[in-house]
Design a protein that fits this description.
single chain; 430 residues; mainly alpha; Growth Hormone, Chain: A; two-stranded antiparallel ribbon; 76% helix; 1% strand
Length: 430
């Protein structure tokens, strides 16, 4: 009546990703009120924002190791961890160090959640639907930002900033128990999965992440490093948009704060459309008989290259309205390429999603910090608000070249060993 069980699992993962990204952004949105009420400086809050990334980076590889051992079984416990830390965040008002510790814990528990969700998707979703299932995660990133701004602002103004963390943390705790009640990390353990659906899932799926092997060969692979570097250059653009797009629209383009909220939402909405459409198109190519390289690599490369001129033109034109339209096109094409980064680790070695994604995410975090700090330096030193976007566009161009020349969806190890046929034990999705 409610459709295939795997759809419900993917739906729960989407909700979790939405909660996850709202919890990342909530303190930034509430910060203006918190700064005023707590009497802390902007510089202190800059350190607080960084504390999330300290925990996030520190637990990337350990979290990836645990994901490769336990797969999607980690999901509810990671959610409980960061949700409890979020609930306790108002206690940080009693001391700056405590606030840093709590934000570091939020980042640490969130660090392995993407590979854990990817492992669950690899268990529940057939290979030809994997890109769509994977892109619900970045789609929730943009959706969480779009929802978070008005939601967190309303809660802050109506009830006070501590209630932002009580409500966000409470929702996460509820979700964790909902998963424990309704979901399993693999379909073989779910009592509601019919024999027909289980057979369909097992007919074409990648190998599960429950068998752990050493990471040495994986992290020494030139293809893994090419994918990691390409992803870091792509993420530089994402963090530039997250950190500096509002200031660019207001200070670089002269829009009001109210206009910025609407226009920023439109640009983010284009990114959301690109993310969803990219995943759908990548899976469609696979269904039509194109190779995994064409579906997971060539299409994202073309999409990135198409987005670069729109970004350069968007920050170069005089017209503000044309600027917005061009930046929407840039985000549409650039974010459509995310389907490749989200699905290639599973194509290359589903048994090592945690290792590959941990490497990608660690360097992506470094790229994010570089984008936030270096872009500010560029503007301060030159007064040119377009320069950071030219830098990001160049990074995307190089990312596309690296992906085209150095990355392949071909399994890292013995041919056929990584993908299951009828005998393979990993889940899928219709």
């Amino acid at each position: 009546m409610l459709g295939p069980v795997r759809y419900r699992i993917v739906g729960l993962i989407f909700l979790l990703a939405l909660i996850n990204h709202i919890d990342r952004a909530n303190i930034s949105i509430a910060a203006p009120v918190m700064i005023r009420e707590l009497g802390w400086s902007e510089a202190q809050f800059g350190v607080i924002f960084s504390a999330f990334l300290w925990g996030y980076m520190a637990f990337q590889l350990p979290g990836g190791y645990l994901t490769d051992r336990y797969g999607g079984r980690l999901i509810p416990w990671l959610c409980l961890g960061w949700s409890v830390a979020t609930l306790l965040t108002p206690l940080g008002a009693t001391g700056f160090t405590l606030m840093l510790v709590l934000r570091c814990l939020v980042g640490g528990f969130e660090a392995p959640i993407v590979p854990a969700m990817s492992a669950a998707n690899a268990a529940w979703v057939p290979r030809h639907e994997l890109a769509r299932a994977q892109t619900v995660i970045p789609a929730a990133l943009n959706g969480g930002i779009m929802i978070g701004y008005p939601l967190v602002t309303a809660i802050t103004l109506q009830f006070g900033w501590p209630w932002v963390f009580y409500i966000c943390g409470g929702v996460g705790v509820v979700w964790a128990f909902l998963w424990l009640w309704l979901a399993k990390s693999v379909p073989e353990e779910h009592s509601s999965v019919s024999a027909e659906e289980l057979a369909y899932i097992q007919a074409e799926r990648v190998r599960p992440t429950s068998e752990h092997e050493g990471w040495g060969e994986v992290l020494r692979s030139p293809r893994v490093w090419a994918l990691t570097i390409s992803y870091a250059l792509w993420v530089y653009n994402m963090w530039l948009m997250a950190s500096w797009l509002p200031s660019y629209l207001v200070r670089g383009r002269g829009f009001s704060v109210g206009e910025m909220g609407l226009l920023g939402g439109m640009i983010t909405g284009a990114a959301l459309v690109g993310t969803i459409a990219g995943g759908w198109f990548s899976d469609k190519l696979l269904q039509l008989g194109y190779s995994a390289d064409h579906a997971r690599k060539t299409f994202p490369v073309i999409s990135m290259l198409m987005g670069v001129p729109f970004m350069i033109a968007g920050v170069s034109v005089e017209s503000g309205s044309l600027c917005i339209a061009l930046l929407m096109c840039a985000r549409l094409f650039n974010d459509a390429a995310l389907c490749g980064y989200m699905s290639l680790p599973t194509e290359m070695s589903p048994r090592h999603i945690g290792a590959i994604w941990g490497s990608m995410s660690t360097f992506g975090s470094l790229a994010g910090m570089a984008a936030a700090t270096f872009s500010g330096y560029q503007v301060t030193a030159t007064g040119n608000w377009a320069l950071p976007f030219y830098t990001a566009a160049g990074g995307i161009f190089v990312a596309a070249l690296i992906m085209a020349l150095g990355v392949s969806a071909r399994p890292l190890f013995a041919s056929g060993a990584e993908r299951s046929g009828a005998a393979s034990p990993v889940p899928a999705m219709h």
